[in-house]
Specification:
The chain is mainly α. 50% of the residues lie in helices and 4% in strands. The chain has a three-stranded antiparallel beta sheet with strand order 1-3-2. It is elongated.
């Protein structure tokens, strides 16, 4: 019996998944001397094959008008964006990978910061899985959900490294080349890239280069990822807090703060109330009004059961309450505004 050949789009999809997981494997390799280059080549390849699998499945030709060759990776991804299969942010992330891949394949890849590589790897694979789930949900089950990467460096974010490279691009050829490669990926119009000469003429005479780049919008609108190794000593728990930063600064750092709960927040609600001559209910009412509740400078809620928490307050909370009562002795947290 003749074995039936697997459909073209499924063969493309199979190859794309192998390429994607091979990229992760190489990126996690300890000794690989061509790590970034090989990772980018395989990531770009995985997206080219996945994009073509989607297009073939939707009965769209992936052949060029002349010559019989298939369309390029950047063209295939651009078609997925036009079809609303990828949104703008997703497509721009992938186009940066393809642009860097071209540099690595055809000449020399500039130094790419770890934060930029981690960002592109994490989000491209997140979008890769999401695209398969959307278009071929049954084909996702053989891909792993977990890929371990270790980092012991004090890393920041993609946005932070891009901003720093832009600030140095007029003096550093390596930084200028990196920014050009990222910019041309984002600015790809479906047919041609922005050349390095065009980039130089368009941006190098500007005082604040970043504000003119398409890369600037990407940095402002894209989520950031940072690998944070948190070591929790005995009797410590790890709390990760996301806080909104200034609209002028897209590269918010992640701070790892170690807290001794009983030392840093020595007062229970009743103890704090006793210090100021009030009762626990009064403090409980005053805390949110004075902006103390859930503010780490003044307050921490420590989980005590599946549904309950113990409220603890800092020395700063005590001083704030004392100051409030000194300035406004009649302050009444029960009074409705």
């Amino acid at each position: 019996m003749i074995k039936r050949s697997r459909r073209e789009y499924l063969r493309l999809l199979d190859a794309s998944k192998i390429a994607a997981e091979s990229a992760i494997d190489i990126f996690n390799s300890v000794w690989h001397p061509y790590r970034n280059q090989a990772t980018l080549m395989l990531l770009a390849n995985s997206w080219e094959l996945l994009s073509k699998a989607v297009l073939v499945h939707e009965k769209e030709s992936i052949l060029r008008a002349k010559g019989g060759d298939t369309i390029s990776a950047q063209e295939a991804v651009f078609k997925l964006q036009n079809r609303k299969i990828l949104d703008k942010n997703q497509a721009e992330t992938i186009q940066q990978i393809i642009s860097l891949r071209h540099a690595a394949t055809h000449y020399l890849l500039p130094d790419v910061p770890a934060e930029v590589m981690q960002h592109l790897l994490f989000y491209s694979l997140k979008f890769f899985r999401a695209t398969i789930k959307k278009k071929f949900p049954k084909q996702l089950k053989d891909m792993s959900d977990n890929y371990l990467t270790l980092s012991f460096s004090d890393l920041t974010t993609y946005a932070d490294k891009v901003q720093k490279s832009v600030s140095k691009l007029k003096k550093s050829p390596d930084d200028k080349k990196l920014i050009w490669l990222l910019e041309r990926g984002i600015a790809f119009d479906g047919s041609s890239y922005l050349s390095e000469t065009q980039f130089d003429k368009k941006y190098l005479d500007k005082k604040k280069v970043l504000s003119y780049l398409a890369l600037n919008k990407f940095v402002k609108n894209a989520d950031m990822v940072r690998v944070v190794p948190v070591q929790a000593p005995h009797n410590y728990t790890a709390d990760i807090t996301l806080r909104k930063g200034s609209v002028r600064d897209a590269s918010l750092p992640i701070l790892v703060k170690k807290t001794e709960i009983e030392e840093d927040y020595p007062y229970l609600t009743k103890e704090l109330a006793s210090k100021i001559g009030k009762n626990a209910n009064w403090v409980g009412r005053a805390a949110p009004i004075l902006g103390m509740k859930n503010n780490e400078k003044y307050h921490q809620a420590v989980r005590s059961s599946a549904t309950g928490s113990i409220q603890r307050y800092s020395e700063a909370a005590l001083q704030l309450l004392k100051k409030k009562l000194t300035e406004e002795p009649t302050f009444n947290p029960y009074k409705k505004n």
